[in-house]
Amino acid sequence: NIDAWWPFVEQGIEAIISTASGCGVMLKEYAQLLENDTDYAHKAQRITELVKDISEVLNQQTSLPVKSPGNTKVSFHSPCTLQHGLQLNGIVEGLLIQCGYQLTQVNDAHLCCGSAGTYSILQPKLSAQLLNNKLEALEAQQPDIIATANIGCQMHLDTKSTTPVMHWIELVERSFEPEKLS
């Protein structure tokens, strides 16, 4: 990744935007992981400085060009990587509200869905219990959609959810007014 991005860094890009919180956390750790690598330490540090989650970028906008999505109820699952790794609590929820979605109250919102990278493979029983608990909390208020910020969580939740599961940025995109985007 560093070699692929480096020409753009040298040209002065403003940011490297991640749409998956798990990937964003990993990219933010490049500097630490490569701090002793004489060839890559300075490049990794610069990459780490440039990485932003897409929620950070959108949150800097004064307003988003949105149309009302109606009365669409959304339960948001904040991935562990978004909450704890990137420490971006409440930003996605605020953006979804700004886009006109009705967010449900989710009990134990801070708890893991059970995906956690290889966790669902190495600890399948515990992962399944966490998934069941999370889905019970997410579906308690009968949302139209469950949204999340990490592809691993999205796929894991979708394995047993009776409610459609999607990435939150898809909901933001659905709420944009095309004529105001140019």
From TrEMBL:
Pfam families: CCG
Enzyme class name: oxidoreductase
Domain Cysteine-rich: residue ranges: 74-158
InterPro entries with a match to the protein in the record: Cys_rich_dom
GO molecular function annotations of the record: 4 iron, 4 sulfur cluster binding; glycolate dehydrogenase activity; metal ion binding
Keywords on record: 4Fe-4S, Iron, Iron-sulfur, Metal-binding, Oxidoreductase, Repeat
Keyword Oxidoreductase: yes
EC number: 1.1.99.14
Name of the molecule in the record: Glycolate dehydrogenase, iron-sulfur subunit GlcF
Source organism: hydrothermal vent metagenome
